[in-house]
Amino acid sequence: MRRTNYNNTSIMNLKQKLISILNKLPYIRGIYQDNVIFKRNSCFPPGHFYSTIVSVDDVKNRQNKIWSNEDIDGINGVDLNVDEQIKLVKQFEKYYGEIPFTENKNNNNRYYFENEYYSYTDAIFLYSMIRHFTPKQIIEIGSGFSSSIMLDTNEQFFNNSINLTFIEPYTDRLKSLLKGNDNKTTTVIEKNVQEVNIETFEKLNHGDFLFIDSTHVVKTGSDVNYIFFEILPKLKSGVLIHFHDIFYPFEYPKDWVFMGKNWNEDYFLRAFLMYNNEFEIRLFSHYLHKHRKEVFNNMPLCYKNTGGNLWLMKK
């Protein structure tokens, strides 16, 4: 029998032909393309100790320890400013009876409570913060249902006097919320925040809002990096800053981690706040629901959803 000699070139050609044949099968093609993308963007598999993507099996084995601090009132190195939080929530009670929002969508408001993105406590706090601090400007990074609260509150209680700036690269949802006259009092910047000049944020003054609902991911070149490293240091004293999807004690909900949400902004924010004398916590909704839930007795709609908002003020 004649022995066939295969050199490296012929082996590679054979491999490419085999890949070409297999890629004609939709299921195989999808797996192959996913593998190519993975190898291009990471040298470590998910769950590897060098990977930022957690091993769900490992986390499940240690879940009792990882989430053991939820019931502890207090975090080492972080001033929760509890007394001031409670005082501020008590101030909100006078605005509660005038909340214009309803459970389901109607023709009077852009916003409604029953949505999965920004619900009850989140919405009530944002509405109340606007009523209480009466900002002249709000810059929002990451737009959506929260934008509709700003637009409705501005229209119904401030005669559209608040200047609203929305920074959002994917604007379909936002534009669906805007009415004919909104363009006079709103600015829409269709960019990633990393592409927005820092001077935009330096215009915020005492009592103005920087509302952040980011990608929640710290990584090379991310929006979270830009916000913490470039924007926050440039803010003036008295500017109020909102972060979303922040949970006490700066740990993501167990079911989120188990479903594969590998966000890490919570941890980064905790490290930022430890021994930090330049920024103070004004509100932390999930903390209040966990450890001071009686503060909501006169605002019962808050009990329908804990929210995930954290409000800071730059001193």
Automatic annotation (TrEMBL):
Classification via InterPro entries: SAM-dependent_MTases_sf
Name of the protein in its database record: Class I SAM-dependent methyltransferase
Any Pfam family: Methyltransf_24
Source species: Sporocytophaga myxococcoides
